[in-house]
Amino acid sequence: MDKYRNTDSVVALKQCSKMMHTYLPQAKSLIKEAEKLSDNYPYAQIESSAILMTFCVTCSDNAQQSCLDIEGDFFNLQEILGL
To answer: In CA terms, which of 8, 20, 41, 64 is 20 to 30 Å from 75?
Structure first.
């Protein structure tokens, strides 16, 4: 989605919006799954990382940073959970 963000192109922003509407329900679904995991691993901050996913799939200026933050969070989660 990065190439469609932060642009003055109406066509690119329209494409970004279309993608956002496709990915946002999937991100929200991940939050529900993360809530279940958080019950078993409350110290791992799984749910908060999943919530960042909703920002990652938007067309906002800081969406890319949210994606990078999630990547770091999931790497840390893998280490915490021994995956």
So the answer is: 20
